[in-house]
């Protein structure tokens, strides 16, 4: 049994990690300011975790959260490209200053390892082929710059202070609990709920942009492996499925699952969005022994079952 802090544990990905850690018998603390996270995400485990309702931007709160902790899964962030374009300072403070505060607290409190929710957005446009970790990053949005800066800080804290760190670059994660509401909703929850309501999903651009949509169970699996490997030293590792799917194909598959034929409404592309995103996952295989455990089609069907319960 390990003592694990999950920052952003009330959010979409964080809550899945918390549930898994609790189920595996670990002692879990959550730090979350509930800006996008929801209390209901923790309902099932509420009496088995320690909850710090606090903000990463507060160094003292980070220090309290790291006390007696061995491992940190750092998921808390303002996790949106368009939000970072609309309000770059807000996301800068949470994503860069917050990560820095957490790392300082982790060193001061002698935490063993920090595993960080990094983002595929760090790559930018670069290549149409699969993106591997040796490619030179080309972040296009404030969010991408912020998440990439976090990776560099993790590596520097490993080199300079001996904190074991690893950055997992997630590629477009989807699954139950991902919020479908509002102008910043991610693609799959927004498409699924629109179609379930009989409405046309809104697509930014022509829909031929591609993503390596990654079902949540794969991300939880990768995090568990990152906790278990004997040592980490600031590595950056893609977490994805290694397959790419176009946005138009996602909508076609959802229509097929639902037995509908609803066309998308296309609007102008958004600034900061990239055209193609597809992962090479050989580093995850080599360093973590990772293999995707749920493929895209199966994940999409499972996610759709969740969105049915909301509509
Ligand atoms: N969802 C994806 O496709 C994806 C892809 C790449 C990387 N990521 C990264 O994964 C992590 C989790 O993303 P998510 O999709 O679960 O988003 P989410 O919004 O559901 O979760 C983020 C959590 O962080 C909390 N939070 C935000 N600012 C905070 C602060 N200053 N102090 C304390 N808590 C704060 C929120 O309340 C929320 O619970 C983020 O770091 C994000 O950048 C997500």
Describe the structure.
- The chain is α/β, with parallel strands linked by helices and 311 residues long.
- The chain has two domains: 3-174 and 214-242 and 278-293, NAD(P)-binding Rossmann-like Domain (Rossmann fold, 3-Layer(aba) Sandwich), CATH 3.40.50; 187-209 and 244-277 and 301-310, UDP-galactose 4-epimerase, domain 1 (Alpha-Beta Complex), CATH 3.90.25.10.
- Helices cover 40% and strands 17% of the residues.
- It is built from ten helices and 13 strands.
- The strands form four sheets. Strands 3-2-1-4-5-6-11 form a seven-stranded parallel beta sheet, with helices on both faces.
- Strand 1, helix 1 and strand 2 (27-32) form a beta-alpha-beta unit.
- The chain is globular.
- The chain starts with a strand and ends with a helix.
- The mean pLDDT is 96.
């Amino acid at each position: 049994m390990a003592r694990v802090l999950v920052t952003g544990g009330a959010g979409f990905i964080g809550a899945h990690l918390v549930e898994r850690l609790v189920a595996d018998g670990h002692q879990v603390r959550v730090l979350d300011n509930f800006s996008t996270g929801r209390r209901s995400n923790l309902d099932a485990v509420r009496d088995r975790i320690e909850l710090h309702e606090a903000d990463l931007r507060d160094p003292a709160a980070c220090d309290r959260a790291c006390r007696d902790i061995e491992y940190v899964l750092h998921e808390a962030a303002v996790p949106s490209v368009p939000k970072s374009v609309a309000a770059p300072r807000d996301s800068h403070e949470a994503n860069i200053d917050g990560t820095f505060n957490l790392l300082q607290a982790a060193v001061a409190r002698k935490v063993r390892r920090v595993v960080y929710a990094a983002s595929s957005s760090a790559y930018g446009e670069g290549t149409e082929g699969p993106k591997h970790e040796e490619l030179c990053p080309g972040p296009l949005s404030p969010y991408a710059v912020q998440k990439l800066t976090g990776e560099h800080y993790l590596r520097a804290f490993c080199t300079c202070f001996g904190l074991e760190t690893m950055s997992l670059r997630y590629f477009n994660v989807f699954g139950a609990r991902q919020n479908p509401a509002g102008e910043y909703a991610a693609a799959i929850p927004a498409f699924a709920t629109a179609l379930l309501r009989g409405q046309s999903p809104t697509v930014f651009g022509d829909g031929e942009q591609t993503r390596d949509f990654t079902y949540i169970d794969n991300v939880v699996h990768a995090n568990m492996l990152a906790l278990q490997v004997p040592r980490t030293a600031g590595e950056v590792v893609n977490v994805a499925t290694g397959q790419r799917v176009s946005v138009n194909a996602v909508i076609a598959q959802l229509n097929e699952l639902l037995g509908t034929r609803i066309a998308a409404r296309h609007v102008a592309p958004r600034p900061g969005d990239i055209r193609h995103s597809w992962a090479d996952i050989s580093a995850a295989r080599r360093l973590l022994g990772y293999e995707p455990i749920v493929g895209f089609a199966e994940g999409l069907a499972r996610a759709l079952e969740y969105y049915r319960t909301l509509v």
